[in-house]
Amino acid sequence: MSLIQSARMNGHDPYAYLKDVLTRLPTQRASQIIDLLPHKWAI
How far is it, in rounded angstroms, from Cα 3 to Cα 8? Predict the structure, then answer.
């Protein structure tokens, strides 16, 4: 399953999800990467 499909299944707009994740990814701590997965993601 792709990230886009996972985002849709979790009720997120795929564009907003990817835009936010790609913006936050460079500064996200490695131990907190799991928070960026679609089932845990929150703006």
Answer: 9
Half-sphere exposure of 41 (CA within 13 A, CB side): 25
pLDDT at residue 1, rounded to an integer:
79
Contact criterion met (CB below 8 Å) for 39 and 7: no
In 3D, which of 11, 13, 14 has the Cα closest to residue 3?
A: 14
Which pLDDT tens digit goes with each residue over 8-42? 999 999 999 999 999 999 999 999 999 999 999 98
Please report, in angstroms and rounded to a whole number, the separation of the first and last CA atoms in the chain: 22
